[in-house]
Amino acid sequence: MIPAVLPTYNRTPLSFVSGEGCWLREESGRHYLDFGAGIGVNALGHANPALVEALTAQAEKLWHVSNLYRIPQQERLAELLVDQTFADTVFFTNSGTEAAELAIKMVRKYWHDRGESARSRILTFEGAFHGRSTAAIAAAGAEKLTAGFGPLMPGFETLGWGDHDALHAALDETVAAVMIEPIQGEGGIRPLPDACLKGLRELCDRTGALLVLDEVQCGMGRSGRLFAHEWAGIAPDIMLVAKGIGGGFPLGAVLATEAAGAPMGAGTHGSTYGGNPLGCAVGAKIMEIVADEAFLAEVRRKAGALRQKLEGLAASHPDVIEGVRGTGLMLGLKCRVTNTDFVKAGHDAGILTVPAAENVVRVLPPLNVTDAEMDEALARLDRAALAAAPDGARG
Q1: Distance between CA 238 and CA 90 in Å, rounded?
Q2: Torsion sign (Cα): 236, 238, 243, 244
Q3: pLDDT score for 346
Q4: Quick one: pLDDT at residue 391?
Q5: What pLDDT shows up at residue 293?
Q6: Residue 3: is the preceding peptide bond cis (ω within 30°)?
Q7: Which of 86, 125, 227, 243 is catalytic?
Q8: CA-CA distance, 25 to 14, in Å (whole number)?
Q9: DSSP 227
Q10: What is the pLDDT of residues 13-56, one digit of tens each?
Q11: CA 133, 105, 283 angle in degrees (round to 5)?
């Protein structure tokens, strides 16, 4: 018999009832150190007092009115994002998937309004993850996402990650846009080198193609900059944001230049809940905290310290961990053992991490993790590595 909750997840048998900062309490009473942060969502940890206060204050006034009316909280968050980024305009969604849908529509409307509606081809990359809607899975192209859901939306061409020859051959004046994650999350914590991102921007400028960056997981301070593309010193035409922008409250956004956003006039897109007062009140508070340069400098310091600790962990357990990859507090352990076995050993040791492609375990602590919590995490990961080691390698 099918359960009441549609069984689309292989869920770990843990039920968390409360949380504070980096910590979660399971219904058994056991406490777990959360270094998965809800897959990079809980940017400021669990039950952050500033976010609780912002949400509670707004909840006592107004929850929802719909986008038929002006929403001051939405306007304020949009202004914060415009002030801090390349963007001239913002549309708010409830998720990264919805942001991907709008970005694809925006690209196609851009070329339609220029009388080039046939210019609809969007280049994407192997290992990408842009959500699970029909357009998003077509964009990613991976069989694990698309099997059984055809026919797929046409117009996407998936290139190999890091295949420069294929990119140069494909990216010409017939391409509408290039859509890419500056750091792949689901794809195995694979950062795109700064030089490659700069080169991609130059290619798009040369051919007229729009550059669409998916910063759903790597954005909002996760890389040590407010957005990961800032490391390369470039700007996109369109950017997808979600996860950390809501800190656990469902919130996403599409940021765009005036040129990319202008074709999306009244009636071209909509969302009943997107940009509601509750989500935008939380998002504005997160922006106030995370966009502060002193906060980001501290993220970079902690990222360096954590990476050094993880490199030491890998050196201590060479039969379990091949190496460390990633940027900022978006790090991954490339495993020699099965990554899900390592994650399960972490559960037994009281630490939560997230598996990804390429046999990687994602390490995604809240951005305000403390040094003491990082030390505790390494102690627990060390115990997990011991437990996950091949029998002959255990002490």
Answers
A1: 10
A2: positive
A3: 98
A4: 77
A5: 98
A6: no
A7: 243
A8: 10
A9: S
A10: 999 999 999 999 999 999 999 999 999 999 999 999 999 999 99
A11: 75
- 243 a catalytic residue: yes
Q: Where in the chain is the domain with CATH 3.90.1150.10?
A: 16-34+293-393
| Residue 189 backbone class (left: φ over 0; alpha: ψ -120 to 50; beta: rest) | left
Residue 129 falls in the annotated catalytic set: yes
Round to whole Å and give the CA distance between 153 and 26: 41
Distance from C-alpha of 388 to C-alpha of 395, rounded to nearest angstrom: 12
CA nearest 383: which of 311, 312, 313, 307? 313
Q: Among candidates 383, 346, 377, which has minimal Cα distance to 361?
A: 346
User: Is 342 an active-site residue?
Assistant: no
Write the CB contacts of 190 (distance below 8 Å, at least 6 apart in sequence): 127, 161, 183, 184, 325, 358
All residue ranges of the chain with pLDDT < 70 are 392-395
**Rounded CA separation 217/190 (Å):** 12
Give the C-alpha separation, 140 to 187, whole Å. Answer: 10
β-sheet bridge partners, residue 190:
184
**CATH code 3.40.640.10 region(s) in the chain:** 50-290
- Residue 123, helix vs strand vs coil: strand
DSSP state of 46: B
The catalytically annotated residue of 129, 156, 227, 342 is 129
Looking at this protein, which amino acid is placed at residue 367? L
Catalytic residue among 109, 125, 214, 285: 214
Task: Find out whether 349 and 313 touch, Cβ atoms under 8 Å.
Answer: no
| Predicted confidence (pLDDT) per residue in 327-360, tens digit | 999 999 999 999 999 999 999 999 999 999 999 9
Q: What is the CATH number of domain 50-290?
A: 3.40.640.10
The domain at 16-34+293-393 falls in which architecture?
Alpha-Beta Complex (3.90)
Question: What's the distance, Cα to Cα, between the start and end of the chain in Å?
Answer: 45
